[in-house]
Amino acid sequence: MSKTGIMGGTFDPIHYAHLLVAEECRRSLDIDRIIFIPTGMPPHKRDHAVSPAEDRYAMTLLATAGVAEFSVSRTEVDRRTPTHTIDTLREFLAEGIAPEDLYFITGLDAILSIETWVDYELLPSLCTLVTATRPGYDLRGIERLPQEIRKSLKVVEIPQVSISSTEIRERVRAGRGIRFLVPHLVETYIESAGLYREREGQEN
Ligand code: NAP
Fold it and tell me: Has residue 203 got a pLDDT over 50?
């Protein structure tokens, strides 16, 4: 059975560090395919602070186009209710993927707040949790997570590329360039859709 990695994130916008994380996790865990899943209506974020799901989905599609092992799923974008990782994992398991072949990849700071997620204690029975090291985050936070989470968690070391979506949004807002921080097609999309020009917290 082939191994499937689910790359979950807000992707507002997707950038080269996300792509690098996906590729490094794929290689180091011998994962066959990575499915990017932009969040729909994140339960833990105020709606207006996040760009429309369709824009984030479109940018994720553009960033991964032409990479054979990468694809993008609309499953959370199309959900009308707040999206919870547990529901997404169950959807994939219902398609016949075995829990031992399913990997959920996300950022370390997202993992460090996992105890606030719906039914988080069930996640290790549905998949292997994977997170990536990144500059500025203290791995010691992992030691404070419940034992069942720590046992399931794989930490993959990624070359230190310090790019964040927050920084990209701020650069656009300040009129500074984002060339080579995001794929060219994503840069063009941000420009033509007029994303991130308003202040943080205002509607785009
Ligand atoms: P986020 O805002 O997308 O990201 C949190 C941090 O992790 C940011 O620093 C982000 O960097 C980084 N990051 C995001 N995705 C990453 C990835 N795949 N690989 C490496 N770094 C990544 O986080 P979020 O909105 O909390 O969501 C992360 C995932 O957790 C989503 O799949 C979401 O559905 C899930 N989640 C589930 C629940 C729940 O089930 N109740 C609650 C919270 C989160 P950038 O800012 O540069 O992207």
Answer: no
